[in-house]
Write a structure and sequence with these properties.
Length: 180
Amino acid sequence: FVWSVACLLISALPSVAFEDTASGCRINPPQPFSVERSAEKRPYDISVGLNSAIGKPRLAGRDRYICEAGFKANAENASLDRATINALGDGEEWIAHLKSVYEKTGMIVLATGRYTLQGFRGLELEGKAPPHAPDDVRIYIAFSETPKGHTTLRCVTLAEDYITALPQFRAIRDSITLPQ
């Protein structure tokens, strides 16, 4: 009975969407997540943060958001069609490059994978923070390229929450409308 009531309460929580009409970037996260524009742009033109209304999965370290997503326009991509972008995504060079970029930040990459979002091949990394990090955390990164640029989703939670959080992180990834 308690589980049924909890499920009803969670399903009643609204998810809040974000849309940038200029780029076409949209995120309509699953319940119980909400999204808001982030003041921290990092290396992105558009940056948003996502949090859970129920506090699960838990935030890790000093992060303000459970997930952050960003879009960065790239004029060099304009000449690339979907087939070319997907061929790059299928190549080992692209995943090796992405992996090396994040390893240089100290992330320990534990797994890599591919996914398809709106017909574009994307890459995902699963990892953990370096040993000197304040918490034992796990990191999920999803990276997608389109002719307009690239979109990145980065989610961080405590290691003990990661297995149950991973399907939620992928559902957030799948709720992103890529700028095309």
